[in-house]
UniProtKB/TrEMBL annotation:
One of its GO terms (molecular function) is DNA binding. Residues 214-340 form the B12-binding domain. SUPFAM superfamilies: Cobalamin (vitamin B12)-binding domain, Putative DNA-binding domain. Keywords: DNA-binding, Repressor, Transcription, Transcription regulation. The lineage of its organism: Bacteria, Pseudomonadati, Pseudomonadota, Betaproteobacteria, Burkholderiales. This is MerR family transcriptional regulator. InterPro entries: Cbl-bd_cap, Cobalamin-bd, Cobalamin-bd_sf, DNA-bd_dom_put_sf, MerR-type_HTH_dom, MerR_fam, Meth_synthase_dom.
């Protein structure tokens, strides 16, 4: 059998450590489809190929992708940064760190908090941000989980999503971008937060009968959109509003979303877009959905990717600027449809 020819160089042992596309996705949080699109569109990454013809990413490309991910977290657009050389990326990161895109969560230099420090339920502020990051740096996610649960008990789920979970996500993102925490620690935080929010939703569902409660809401993301945390935060507010919910998860094909809306008799389709979604992906997917879904079905979109394209959203698509907008929009929907 003749050897298969590849357009890319073949990775060999002498080329050093290489990473599979799954490894890169796990290390950077960038989806496989995104990496492939960038490869075609921007010429980077430029993976080698292993003996089986699979993509193999050298260390230097993985490091560049990590920097690109940090810049995307700081609201840079892919088209502006993906093709930049290493030195330019480093310069941008230096400027970004000096500028601090989220001054309200800038961490102050403080003495190291004690391991058994306890955060009061209502005291998330600049004065204790180092405590949260410190727990994460020491892999004490059980402390984070306990503090989140205490906040929910004292203030309720809606308050925590808006005033604690969202600022914490920004804080952790800033810590990651600054190199204070590693990728695995960021993942640990995300999983911890998701588990707490899911537990809270389950507690609400245990006491509030939502079956048959309108509007019936379908929650999902469109293809290539792999970030589920924003969707989960929105679901928290739909649960608080006593809506019957159907969750498809992330990266659902457009045809499947359309089918689910019809088969499940959905009233509201809720979609989330992260900052990594391109303008074309956001607008094309929403246009397809609005064209093929009955006009009687509302389409509500949220997330940084939707907000960035708010002036270009198709007619008949409503923007949720923040997760807490859900309660007002549900109340308005029920008023229009004669439901209290």
């Amino acid at each position: 059998m003749s050897k298969k020819a590849f357009d890319h160089p073949v990775a060999t042992n002498s080329s050093g450590l290489t990473w599979s596309i799954s490894d890169v996705e796990r290390e950077t949080g960038l989806g496989k489809d995104t990496l492939r699109v960038w490869e075609r569109r921007y010429g980077f990454p430029a993976p080698l190929r292993d003996a089986l013809g699979e993509r193999a990413y050298p260390d230097d490309q993985l490091n560049r992708l990590r920097m690109i991910r940090r810049l995307l977290d700081a609201d840079h657009r892919p088209g502006k940064v993906v093709s930049l050389p290493l030195e330019a990326l480093q310069d941008l990161l230096s400027v970004q760190n000096a500028r601090d895109p989220h001054p309200q969560i800038k961490r102050k230099v403080q003495t190291r908090p004690k391991t058994n420090s306890v955060i009061e339920p209502d005291s998330f502020s600049k004065d204790n941000e180092d405590v949260w990051v410190g727990w994460l740096k020491r892999d004490e996610t059980h402390q984070i989980k306990q503090a989140l649960q205490q906040n929910i008990l004292m203030h309720g789920l809606g308050y925590v999503v808006e005033n604690l979970a969202a600022p914490l996500c920004r804080l952790v993102g800033q810590a990651w971008m600054s190199g204070d925490i590693s990728v695995y620690q960021e993942h640990l935080f995300t999983e911890t937060l998701q588990s707490v929010l899911r537990e809270a939703i389950a507690s609400i569902d245990a006491v509030v009968q939502t079956r048959g409660c309108r509007p019936r809401v379908l929650l999902t993301t469109t293809p290539n959109e792999l970030h589920s945390l924003g969707l989960l935060m929105v679901e928290c507010h739909f649960a608080l509003a006593a809506c019957e919910r159907f969750v498809l998860g992330t990266s659902t094909p457009i045809s499947d979303i359309i089918q689910a809306v019809e088969r499940l008799n959905i009233d509201v389709l809720a979609i989330s877009y992260s900052p990594y979604a391109s303008r074309k992906e956001v607008l094309d997917s929403l246009q397809q959905l609005r064209t093929h879904i009955n006009d009687a079905v509302d389409i509500w979109v949220g997330g940084a990717g939707a907000y960035a394209n708010r002036r270009l959203l198709p007619e008949g698509v409503e923007l949720m600027r923040k997760a807490s907008d859900v309660s007002d929009q549900v109340a308005a929907w029920r008023s229009r449809h004669g439901r209290q």
